[in-house]
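User: Sorry, what's this?
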Amino acid sequence: MPRLSMVAWVASATMWCAAAHAGDVVLDVRNVTSTEGPLLGLLFAGPEGFPSQPDVAYAKARAVALRQGSRLVFPNVAPGTYAAIVVHDRNSNGTCDLSWPIPFPKEPFAATRGARGVMGPPKFADAAFRVDASGAVEIVTLP
């Protein structure tokens, strides 16, 4: 039993230290042309699911769309490499609407680092940025 208690203490201390060194990721969103509907943000910790699979995103954020600009905040993000996508959900349905039969977003969207896709979505590597223990601030400009 004492051995298990020591293992549990070390594990909890490790998690506390990791949380203590996590910072906020802030996305300053520019070129918001309408106040209809919220801004939705997805933060990804790797290329899997980027940018279109919210279920595998590392974190999600939501903010009010303001013409002078808005901020999406992802709190307590561990240091590492991330990429984010922002969608202006103008009809407030909680998702990025796609056209049919060719799936292209109907609502304004943009990725970090100005990444754009060519005949498809942007690549994680093109949108990736580093987060250190103090966090990160990225500018995302909607089209």
